[in-house]
Amino acid sequence: MTVTVRAPRYATNREIERIVREKEPWIRKQLEKIAGQKEMATEQQPEKLTEKDIRELADRALVYIPERVKYFAPQVGVSYGRITIRNQKTRWGSCSGKGNLNFNCLLMLTPPEVIDYVVVHELCHRKEMNHSKAFWDQVERILPDYKMSEAYLKKEGSAIMARAGYQ
Question: Lower CB count within 10 Å: N or C terminus of the chain?
Answer without folding.
Answer: N
